[in-house]
Design a protein that fits this description.
alpha+beta, Arc Repressor Mutant, subunit A, 3 domains
């Protein structure tokens, strides 16, 4: 791992300035400019056609669904969607870029001037979003390592032409922790609105980090280095932390930071120089001659906006307000759209949001984790979990008994009422039956009875527990407490 030895007090003299470029693969069935499928895992170079192979004479046709997903992302990031945008050719040469250029958007992007709120240690911060623009992806180069002193590189063009949006942040991020929080919130938003699955192992979300440092209090920005194509949030955080230290050490030793692209080596924990950073003129941008400008009408914009679901931040706030949830529970229950939908359905059935939240985040998630299932695969429907919580609230079953019933529901998929009726698990509230149980408990525990009567009233909890155990958890706890205290005088 990295061995940079620059002292913390020296690092504290500098302010990091960080901007992130996030590439999100849009969840379309076909590519952005052709009809080839975007499914992951196909045999190399099988999901290709003359358009995405860049063959002469092949013409691109824009995918309408890709545009709508891009608009959805822009709206969710509070951007202004431009009624007129244009595609451009971005010229550069990689083995996995068959056209010799990328179709992207340059000076007239789809959307601009948005923001995303993050939370760091309970403090809210707004990160500006400069722009959201559309582009097609390149293919993938696969390096086979060294054999016979040679490096073998294979090219898979299945990903070539996959639809992307690039989300460019303002340089508002001031630490690796803030970058991590921004990416986490960004991913959650994109998944909530069904723009992308954001599976980083499949390359559906990738990040470039632009990092510079400047002496604290100075307005002028330092020279930035771009760390390219980091494929996990943890590695982004580590790469930024290393890059901050590297630049501070370089400046403190009298050197200067070069504007360049760098790669993060996960084995060493270091960034390494890749190439000098290109400027816009290096790409020789010019308008894409084979595509007409993209025009988004007010009607189309309204249509896409009307289909957007509630955003995660809004849902967290509403869960806390409407259901009386703690901030942490509201975060957990709104972590995915499916979890939030499940909780809300169950809470409406039970009539007790806080109790329902505890059952979802505790016992149900514990069973799901043990079974390796997601909440959408739960054998217990939200309706039936709500019914179980309602039975507890009505005093028909105890919480302890409910745990046993929940496990049986998870195994069988049955309703709680069916299990209770079949196994005779209804809560015992009849005073005659409870008195008999309590009398047996008192007779079996004379020492504790004497302790209670001599003033050690805390022992009542033990006696209640014995009564609940004797009833297999079916006794009404409140009734047991009342009768026990009456009998103990």
């Amino acid at each position: 791992m990295s061995t940079l030895a620059v002292a913390e007090d020296v690092i504290a003299k500098y302010e990091p300035v960080i901007g992130l470029e996030v590439h999100v693969q849009l969840g379309t069935k076909t590519k952005i400019f052709c009809g080839c499928v975007t499914s992951f895992g196909a045999e190399p170079n099988t999901n290709v056609c003359p358009v995405c192979l860049g063959l002469p004479g092949a013409l691109p046709v824009l995918n309408r669904q890709a545009v709508e997903l891009a608009i959805s992302a822009a709206l969710a990031l509070h951007c202004r969607v431009n009624p007129f945008s244009r595609f451009a050719r971005k010229n550069y040469f990689y083995p996995d870029l068959p056209k010799g250029y990328q179709i992207s958007q340059y000076d007239q992007p789809l959307a601009e001037h948005g923001w995303l709120n993050i939370n760091i240690d309970g403090i809210a911060k707004r990160i500006g979003v400069t722009r959201v623009h559309m582009e097609d992806d390149a293919g993938k180069s696969i390096h086979d390592g060294f054999r016979d002193s040679d490096v073998y590189t294979y090219v898979d063009l299945n990903r070539s032409g996959a639809p992307l949006i690039e989300i460019v942040s303002e340089p508002d991020i001031r630490s690796a922790g803030e970058a991590y929080a921004y990416l986490t919130e960004m991913k959650q938003v994109m998944q909530y609105i069904s723009v992308s699955d954001c599976d980083m192992e499949k390359g559906q979300l990738r990040c470039d980090a632009n990092v510079s440092v400047r002496p604290r209090g100075r307005e002028e920005l330092g020279t930035k280095a771009e760390v390219k194509n980091v494929n996990s949030f943890r590695f982004v955080k580590q790469a930024i932390e290393y890059e901050i230290r590297r630049q501070v050490e370089l400046i403190e030793s009298g050197g200067t930071v070069a504007q360049e692209s760098r790669l993060y080596n996960v084995e060493t924990g270091q960034t390494v120089s890749m190439r000098s950073k290109e400027q816009a003129h290096d790409y020789r941008y010019f308008p894409e001659p084979d595509l007409v400008p993209l025009q988004v009408s007010e009607h189309w914009l309204h249509e896409v906006k009307s289909r957007l679901p509630e955003l995660p931040a809004d849902r967290r706030e509403r869960f806390a307000t409407d259901y009386g949830l703690r901030e942490y529970d509201a975060q957990v229950l709104s972590l995915t759209r499916e979890t939030g939908d499940y909780f809300e359905t169950a809470a409406k059935v039970s009539g007790d949001g806080r109790a329902t939240g505890n059952w979802v985040t505790g016992d149900l998630m514990g069973l799901l984790k043990a079974a390796g299932k997601e909440i959408a695969e739960s054998p217990i429907s939200a309706q039936r979990l709500g019914e179980l919580v309602a039975l507890i609230s009505k005093g028909e079953i105890s919480g302890k008994l409910a745990k046993e019933i929940l496990a049986k529901m998870f195994e069988s998929g049955e309703a709680a009422s069916a299990i209770i009726d079949r196994e005779g698990l209804k809560q015992i509230s009849d005073s005659g039956a409870l008195e008999k149980i309590i009398d047996e408990v008192l007779a079996a525990n004379p020492k504790q009875v004497e302790q209670y009567r001599s003033g050690k009233t805390a022992v009542a909890g033990f006696l209640v527990g014995q009564a609940m155990k004797a009833s297999r958890g079916q006794a009404n706890p409140a009734a047991v407490n009342e009768l026990l205290k009456a009998k103990l005088g």
